[in-house]
Write a structure and sequence with these properties.
Oligomer: heterodimer
Strand order of the largest sheet of chain A: 3-6-9-1-10
Number of domains of chain A: 2
Largest sheet of chain B: none
CATH topology of the largest domain in chain A: Rossmann fold
Shape of chain A: globular
Shape of chain B: rod-shaped
CATH superfamily of the largest domain in chain A: P-loop containing nucleotide triphosphate hydrolases
Radius of gyration of chain B: 43 Å
Number of helices of chain A: 14
Helix content of chain B: over 70%
CATH class of the largest domain in chain A: Alpha Beta
Distance between the termini of chain B: 120 Å
Number of strands of chain A: 13
Distance between the termini of chain A: 26 Å
Largest sheet of chain A: 5 strands, parallel
Strand content of chain A: 15-25%
C-alpha cells in the first residue's frame, strides 16, 4: 500500500482551476471549452490567441479573468497607428532635481495579465514588439533590458471576418501562442441566459480566487506530472502526422503546406499535463492529448490554397489525424 | 510496488486465459479448415488414407496453437497499457508501471492513484475469455462444407477401388508364384537347376509385387518364362523317346522284361534295372543273349538320341560277338543316360511347375488389367474375390511330360496326364486341364488356374478342345497382341493335325 503523501499538492491546482472556471462561469455564459482551454493555458504559462466574431465575449472573458486573479491587468487596443513604444514603453525627458534626463516610462505590457485586443489591426512592426515580449518575457528599450512581471499572460483577440485593413499574424509569430482558441457563437439557451444576466439592473461581481503566487505554483506543479513513454510517443506521432511529407493521410499530403513545429509538441504535452491535473489525475492520458490537440495545433498547421478553396480547415485535418493515429500500447 | 505486482499477476493470469481461449479457437479454425482442405484434396487426387490425413490436422493444429500460446508472453508494460485502454484507466497503470522506480514529486501520488483505480476495476475484464463471432461463424461454415464433401459421392472412390483391386490382384499373382516355388521345393525330385528356377521365380515375385499396376506386373512375367524355358534341355524328348523305345524293345525279351517295366515306370528305376541286367549278362543263356542283342539292336535303330543309339548299338554288337564284358559296359552307359534322363525330367517338371505358376499369375493380372482398361477395376474386384476363392477346389495344372513313341500314338505318362506330341518342343509345353466344375459352373466356363491345386487328371485327347476354347477365350479377353493370339490359334491348329491323322 502506498501511503506516502505527494510532495507537491496537485489537488490545490485542481481546486484552483475549478475555482477559476466556476467564478468565470458566473459571468461567461456557456463556453465551457473556452473557459477550460483558457485556464489550461494560464496554468501552463502560455499565451492565448482568441479568435471569434465581435460580440462573443472575448474581451469580457479576459477582463473577467483579470478580476478573478489578484494580478495586474492591462488592456491594449491594437490599431493601425499603434506604435511599439505604445506597448513596451519609451524613454522620455523628465526633470529630476533640476536636471533634465531620460526616464523610462513603462508601457501597458508591464502587467501580469495583458489583453491585446484585435491584435491583427496593428502593423507588423507593433505586433512584432508584442510577440517578442511574449516569447522573451523581457522588454528592451534603448540599451536596457527589463523583465516583465511573472506570471505574464497575454490574451490576444482577433476578428476573422473583418480582414480589410488588417495585418494577419505571420506563421512564426502565431507559433508563439500556446493556444489558439476559437470562440463559438452561443447556443440559443446560452443567448437567453446572456440576455437575462446582462440586461438587468445589476451584473455579477467576480471575486478574486487566486494570486500570482498560486498561479506560479500551479505552473511548476503542472510540469511535474508524469507522462508514460508510449503516451509521449503518441504525442510525437500526432505532431509528425501534421507534416505532409511524413503523414500517411491523403488530406494532410494534399492540403497541408507546413506542419506543426516542435513547439507544437511541447504545447501538446504541457497542456496535456495541465488537463490531467484539472481532471484530478496524476498522469497524462491519451484523452488529455486528444482534448488539447485542436487549440494546440490549429494555428501551427498551415494549409495550401487548395484547402481554402475546398473549405478544409485545420481543425478538420487535426480531427482526421486524431482519428487515424494509433494509440499503440507500450511494446516492452 | 507490491500492489502493482499483484495487479500485474492478476492481469497476466487473465491474459493467459484469454489468450488460451483465443488460440484454442484458432486451433479449431485451423483443424476444421484442414479437414475441409483434405476433403477438397481427396476429390481432386486419389488418396487412400483420407481419414487419417484429415484427423492428423487436428492434433497438429492444437499443438501449433498450444506452442504459440506457450511462447507468447505479453510484456508487463503491454499488459498494463492494454488494461488501461480496456478498463478506461486513462493510462494510469502503464504510467505507474513505467515509473515504478521513479521518485518524482508526483510519482508516489500517481502510483497511489493507479492502484486505487485498479482496485475499483475488475481486472480480469481487461482480458475476457470470449469466442470471436467471426471465428465461430467460420468454423460452422467450414464444418458444414467439410461434412457435405464427406457425404457427397467422391469421384476418386472408383480410382481408389481400382487401385485396391490392382493391389489384390498383384498380391494374388505374387502368391501364385510363391506357391509355385513352394511346390517345386516340396516336390521331392530335386534337379540341379532348382536353385536357378527358385531365383527366377523369386525375382518375378518381387517384380510383380513392386509393379505400379497389373499391366506393369505382366511385363515381368514373359521374361521370367523365357529364362525358365532356357533351363529346359531340348534333348530331353529325344532321350525320352529313345528310353521308351528301349523299354518297348526289352519288353519282348525274357531277360529284359523287368528292365522294360522299370524304364517305363521311371528312368531312375530303369537305370538300376539296366545295371542289374548288365551284371547278369554272363549268366544269360545264349538264346537269351541273342534275343537281347536283337532287342537292343532294334532299340538302337529307333533311338533318336545319338549317345543312346551308340551305346545300344555297341551293347548289341558285343552281345552278338560274345563279348559280355563290353556289352555290360555299354549297358552301364545306357544306365547312365537313363539317370541323366531322370535329372532332365525333374528339371523339366520344375520348369513346367514354375511356368504354370507364372501363367496363373499372368491370368489374374491380365483379367485385372482388362478391368482397369475398361474402367471397372474397382467394381470387378468385388466379384473376383469370391470366385477366386471358389476356384481353389476346381482348378489345377495337369502338367505332364509324358513319354511317347514319337508318332503320337500315346504312351503311359509317368507324371500327369500329358503325352508326348511327337514334336521336339513338346517337352516344355504346358497343357492346362480345366478341373471339375464347381456347383453352378458349367464346363465351358474358363476358370483361372491356381498353382498347387491338385485335380483329377484327364487324358489329353479328352480335354484339348475345352482347353483350346478356354485359351482362345482368354486371349480374346486379355491384353495380348494380335500376333500372339495368332500364335495361340496356330498352336492349337497344329495340335489338331495329329488328332485328325489319328
Amino acid at each position: 500500500m502506498i501511503a506516502e503523501e505527494p510532495r507537491v499538492d496537485a489537488t490545490r491546482v485542481t481546486e484552483l482551476a475549478q475555482s477559476l472556471e466556476t467564478e468565470l462561469a458566473r459571468l461567461i455564459v456557456g463556453q465551457k471549452a473556452l473557459l477550460r482551454d483558457t485556464v489550461i493555458a494560464l496554468t501552463a504559462g502560455g499565451h492565448v490567441l482568441l479568435e471569434g466574431v465581435p460580440g462573443l465575449g472575448k474581451t469580457v472573458l479576459v477582463r473577467s479573468l483579470g478580476q478573478t486573479l489578484s494580478m495586474s491587468f492591462s488592456r491594449i487596443q491594437f490599431t493601425p497607428d499603434l506604435m511599439p513604444a505604445d506597448i513596451v514603453g519609451t524613454n522620455i525627458i523628465g526633470d529630476t532635481d533640476g536636471r533634465r534626463e531620460f526616464h523610462y516610462q513603462a508601457g501597458p505590457i508591464f502587467a501580469n495579465l495583458v489583453l491585446a485586443d484585435e491584435i491583427n489591426r496593428a502593423t507588423p512592426k507593433t505586433q512584432s514588439a508584442l510577440l517578442e515580449a511574449m516569447q522573451e518575457r523581457t522588454v528592451t528599450v534603448g540599451t536596457q533590458t527589463r523583465p516583465l512581471p511573472s506570471p505574464f499572460f497575454v490574451l490576444a483577440t482577433q476578428n476573422p471576418i473583418e480582414l480589410e485593413g488588417t495585418y494577419p499574424l505571420p506563421e512564426a509569430q502565431l507559433d508563439r501562442f500556446f493556444f489558439k482558441i476559437l470562440v463559438p457563437f452561443p447556443s440559443e439557451g446560452d443567448l437567453l441566459e446572456i440576455a437575462r444576466r446582462t440586461t438587468g439592473d445589476s451584473t455579477p461581481q467576480l471575486k478574486s480566487v487566486a494570486d500570482a503566487g498560486a498561479i506560479l505554483t500551479a505552473q511548476r506543479t503542472a510540469r511535474e506530472v508524469p507522462i508514460a513513454e508510449h503516451v509521449l510517443r503518441y504525442a510525437a506521432r500526432l505532431v509528425s502526422a501534421t507534416h505532409p511529407d511524413r503523414s500517411e493521410l491523403d488530406s494532410v499530403r494534399r492540403y497541408v503546406r507546413w506542419g506543426a513545429s516542435p513547439r507544437g509538441l511541447q504545447t501538446l504535452v504541457l497542456a496535456g499535463k495541465v488537463r490531467a491535473l484539472l481532471e484530478g489525475r496524476y498522469n497524462v492520458a491519451f484523452d488529455d492529448l486528444n482534448s488539447v490537440a485542436q487549440p494546440a495545433l490549429r494555428h501551427r498547421i498551415f494549409l495550401q490554397f487548395e484547402a481554402e478553396a475546398d473549405g478544409i480547415t485545420a481543425d478538420r485535418i487535426i480531427s482526421e489525424i486524431l482519428e487515424h493515429t494509433a494509440k499503440e500500447p507500450a511494446s516492452k | 510496488m507490491s500492489s502493482l505486482e499483484a495487479i500485474l499477476r492478476e492481469l497476466r493470469r487473465a491474459a493467459r486465459r484469454a489468450l488460451g481461449a483465443r488460440y484454442a479457437a484458432h486451433a479449431v479454425v485451423g483443424a476444421v479448415a484442414w479437414v475441409a482442405a483434405v476433403m477438397i484434396l481427396v476429390r481432386l487426387v486419389p488418396f487412400e488414407r483420407r481419414a487419417e490425413l484429415a484427423v492428423l490436422g487436428i492434433p497438429v493444429a492444437l499443438a501449433i496453437a498450444a506452442a504459440a500460446w506457450l511462447m507468447r508472453r505479453p510484456s508487463a508494460a503491454l499488459l498494463m497499457a492494454m488494461a488501461d485502454i480496456r478498463l478506461g484507466l486513462k493510462e494510469r497503470l502503464s504510467t505507474a508501471w513505467e515509473r515504478r522506480a521513479e521518485s518524482g514529486p508526483l510519482d508516489d501520488a500517481q502510483r497511489h492513484d493507479a492502484v486505487q483505480h485498479a482496485a475499483r476495476a475488475s481486472l480480469p475484464a481487461a482480458f475476457p475469455v470470449r469466442v470471436n463471432r467471426g471465428e465461430a461463424t467460420l468454423v460452422a461454415i467450414l464444418a458444414i462444407f467439410a461434412l457435405a464433401l464427406a457425404l457427397l459421392p467422391n469421384p476418386m472412390d472408383q480410382v481408389l477401388a481400382q487401385r485396391q483391386a490392382d493391389r489384390v490382384s498383384q498380391a494374388r499373382a505374387a502368391k501364385a508364384v510363391a506357391d509355385a516355388k513352394k511346390k517345386i521345393a516340396d516336390s521331392g525330385k530335386p534337379s540341379p537347376k532348382d536353385a536357378q528356377i527358385q531365383k527366377i521365380l523369386q525375382d518375378a515375385q518381387a517384380k510383380i509385387h513392386e509393379a505400379d499396376s497389373p499391366r506393369k506386373a505382366l511385363e515381368s512375367i514373359t521374361p521370367a518364362e523365357q529364362q525358365l524355358q532356357k533351363l529346359a534341355d531340348p534333348g530331353t524328348p529325344a532321350l525320352q523317346s529313345s528310353a521308351q523305345n528301349l523299354a518297348n524293345a526289352l519288353s519282348g525279351t525274357a531277360a529284359g522284361r523287368s528292365a522294360a517295366q522299370a524304364i517305363s515306370t521311371n528312368p531312375a528305376k530303369g537305370a538300376q534295372s539296366v545295371r542289374d541286367l548288365a551284371s547278369q549278362l554272363q549268366s544269360l543263356s545264349p538264346k537269351d543273349r541273342e534275343e537281347l542283342a536283337k532287342a537292343l539292336a532294334k532299340a538302337s535303330q529307333q533311338a533318336q538320341n545319338s549317345q543312346m543309339r551308340d551305346s545300344l548299338s555297341k551293347a548289341s554288337s558285343s552281345l552278338q560277338s560274345g563279348d559280355a564284358a563290353s556289352a555290360a559296359q555299354a549297358l552301364n552307359d545306357v544306365a547312365s543316360q537313363l539317370d541323366s534322363l531322370q535329372e532332365q525330367e525333374n528339371t523339366d517338371q520344375a520348369v513346367a511347375a514354375a511356368i504354370n505358376g507364372l501363367e496363373a499369375a499372368r491370368q489374374g493380372l491380365a483379367a485385372q488389367a482388362d478391368r482397369d482398361a475398361n474402367g471397372q477395376g474397382g467394381q470387378a474386384n468385388a466379384g473376383v474375390s469370391p470366385s477366386a476363392g471358389a476356384s481353389g477346389n476346381g482348378n489345377g495344372n495337369g502338367t505332364g511330360t509324358g513319354t511317347g513313341n514319337g508318332n503320337g500314338s500315346g504312351g503311359t505318362g509317368s507324371n500327369g496326364s500329358g503325352t508326348g506330341s511327337g514334336s521336339g518342343a513338346a517337352s516344355t509345353e504346358r497343357i492346362y486341364v480345366p478341373g471339375q466344375p464347381v456347383p453352378g459352373q458349367s464346363e465351358n466356363d474358363p476358370t483361372p488356374l491356381g498353382p498347387g491345386q491338385d485335380v483329377p487328371l484327364s487324358p489329353y485327347t479328352q480335354v484339348i478342345e475345352a482347353y483350346q476354347q478356354a485359351a482362345l477365350d482368354a486371349t480374346d479377353q486379355s491384353l495380348i497382341p494380335g500376333s500372339e493370339r495368332d500364335l495361340v490359334r496356330e498352336y492349337f491348329s497344329q495340335l489338331g493335325e495329329p488328332r485328325a491323322a489319328k
